[in-house]
TrEMBL record, chain A:
The chain crosses the membrane at residues 21-44, 82-103, 115-135, 141-160, 230-251. It is a multi-pass membrane protein. PROSITE patterns: ABC_TM1. GO terms for cellular component: plasma membrane. It comes from the Bacteria. Probably part of an ABC transporter complex. Probably responsible for the translocation of the substrate across the membrane. This is ABC transporter permease. It is found in: Cell membrane.
Automatic annotation (TrEMBL), chain B:
Keywords: ATP-binding, Nucleotide-binding, Transport. This is ATP-binding protein. It comes from Mesorhizobium helmanticense. Coiled coil: none annotated. Belongs to the ABC transporter superfamily. GO terms for molecular function: ATP binding; ATP hydrolysis activity. SMART domains: AAA. Residues 5-232 form the ABC transporter domain. The keyword Transport applies. Signal peptide: none annotated. InterPro entries: AAA+_ATPase, ABC_transporter-like_ATP-bd, ABC_transporter_ATP-bind, P-loop_NTPase. PROSITE patterns: ABC_TRANSPORTER_2. It comes from the Bacteria.
């Protein structure tokens, strides 16, 4: 999620857009890098220098968990939480961000809360959420909702306030009134910012769900790791970690593809 | 004949920290129907401020602007505006940009398309109707913006240094195209520029403004026939007027109390 501080213009893939030759070369290097990492892992664990499971053990456990359906159940449980919380967060963040950017009154009313809650890690809300919302799904989804809401709302707000004044004036002299300007100029012009916010939101939602499951859950990838920890079951922890990393990466790439498609009109530097 | 646009003692102040800044001081000007007026002056002379007030994008602090006798109270499609930065909507194709104002007017799709087509052809962008602005050169972007302004059929064109960001060759081409369209349709044009040659080449009258505070300095008649051609541009008469305007712009007396 290094896109956090970058402007949307340069956020998507930067140097990767140099043409197919470049892409194949870097893909090849990616594979070499991964293979080298696995080789080092294998060498270190095989020689007994570190007491971690070796790649074949992890692979065997992966196949076992996949075969029993356990891995799929955990993944679905985590994904369901993340997507519910994330969608609710983004769906609320976009109108609130727009309202803050468009109306000074809304900005002044909401900003203190936003700045305050941004400073509290979402996980720190869990104890309160469990006490007030019980141990079912609600507190976890709430925390994920909060994490993705806070990340997306700031980006949306930034997007609205940085819409080019001249473009708004151009719409006004063509006869557009406030609502038309909002719908036909402000919304499309701030889309790139919103999408960056949504990506950051998804990243923090995913990070939060796993941590939330470590603390309080009866299912999910985080819960599985927490259980494995009790039985010193390192291969299962490894499988869960890989699943978390890969799923996060896949979701980010999917959003990136959507982003590229929706902002094709942008002049990239 | 009653004037189309009347600036009557228009004053505009901008509030700054610890005081205010007088951008435009008691500016008065009548622009006749169908007239082509250019406005030149150093930066800070209030030329853009005056134009924005006429467009209804800025409010006057004192005095008023009337169009056809009615005070300007906000922007309206009868006053088209063209900006130096083009201000196209980058997510819309050339066609959709040109149709933008027509859509707001509530024209039905078929009619919108027909009108847009006509103006896209007029500015010579027929081949690029479905292109996104990012694929166009600066001159083509400005031509698209001009088509967008024409499409809503304004009676007045307000142009804020429209060719200022273009290279010299493109600028001359667009000047000639603009004059050609103007002489056919006779819209009233108020055109701001910092280029003295451009001001004289295009105008019936050149309005010279002075800075600190922004105010009217002098109005110079351009007594040259249309169509303006390269011959006119190179003629001694052109040079004489150009020199007068140049002198008025670059050898201004400092501000003194006047009224």
């Amino acid at each position: 999620m290094s896109a956090a501080s970058a402007k949307p213009r340069t956020a998507s893939s930067g140097k990767a857009e140099r043409g197919p030759a470049m892409d194949f070369a870097s893909l090849g290097l990616n594979i070499v890098g991964v293979a080298a990492g696995v080789a080092i892992w294998w060498a270190l664990t095989g020689s007994g220098v570190v007491g971690l499971p070796r790649p074949p053990e992890v692979l065997a456990r992966f196949i076992e968990l996949l075969g029993s359906g356990q891995l799929l159940r955990d993944t679905v449980a985590s994904l369901a939480r993340v997507l519910t919380g994330f969608l609710l967060g983004v769906l609320l963040a976009i109108p609130v961000g727009f309202a803050m950017g468009w109306y000074k009154v809304a900005r002044a009313l909401v900003e203190p809360y936003l700045q305050f809650f941004r400073m509290i890690p979402p996980l720190a809300i869990i104890p309160l959420a469990i006490v007030t919302m019980g141990i079912e799904e609600t507190p976890k989804i709430f925390v994920i909702f909060l994490a993705s809401f806070l990340a997306s709302v700031v980006a949306t707000y930034q997007g609205v306030i940085s819409v080019d004044r001249t473009m708004i004036n151009a719409a006004r002299v063509l006869g557009a009134k406030d609502f038309t300007i909002f719908r036909r100029v402000v919304v499309p012009a701030s889309t790139p910012f919103i999408l960056v916010g949504v990506r950051i939101g998804l990243g923090s939602a995913w990070a939060t769900v796993v941590a939330a499951e470590l603390i309080a859950a009866q299912s999910g990838l985080g819960y599985r790791m927490q259980q494995a920890q009790l039985y010193y079951d390192l291969p299962t922890i490894f499988v869960s970690l890989f699943a978390i990393g890969i799923l996060g990466l896949v979701m980010d790439r999917m959003l990136q593809a959507v982003e590229r498609r929706l902002t094709i009109w942008q002049e990239r530097i | 004949m009653t004037p189309k646009i009347v600036f009557d003692n228009v004053t505009r102040r901008f509030d700054l920290k610890g005081g205010s800044f007088l951008a435009l001081d008691r500016f008065s000007l009548d622009v006749a129907d169908g007239e082509f007026v250019t406005v030149v002056g150093p930066s800070g002379c209030g030329k853009s401020t005056a134009l924005n007030i006429a467009a209804g994008l800025l409010k006057a602090s004192g005095g008023e602007v009337t169009v056809d006798g009615k005070p300007v109270e906000g922007p309206g499609p009868e006053r088209g505006m063209i900006f130096q930065q083009y201000a196209l909507f980058p997510w819309l194709s050339v066609r959709d940009n040109v149709e933008f104002g027509l859509r707001i007017k509530g024209e039905p799709p078929a009619r919108r398309r027909e009108i847009a087509e006509r103006f896209i052809d007029l500015v010579g962008l027929g081949q690029f109707a479905d292109a996104l602005p990012k694929t166009l050169s600066g001159g083509m972007k400005q031509r698209c913006a001009i088509a967008r302004a024409y499409a809503v059929d304004p009676v007045i064109l307000l142009m804020d240094e429209p060719f200022g960001a273009l290279d010299a060759l493109t600028r001359v081409q667009l000047q000639d195209q603009l004059l050609e369209t103007w002489s056919r349709e006779r819209r009233t044009v108020m055109f701001i520029t910092h280029d003295v040659d451009e001001a004289v080449y295009l105008a019936n009258r050149v309005v010279v403004m002075a800075a600190g505070p922004g105010r009217l300095q002098e109005i110079i008649e351009v007594d040259l026939p249309y169509p303006r051609t390269e011959e006119i541009r190179l003629s001694p008469e052109f040079t004489a007027i150009r020199n007068r305007v140049w002198h008025a712009v670059y050898h201004q007396q400092p501000a003194q109390s006047h009224g």
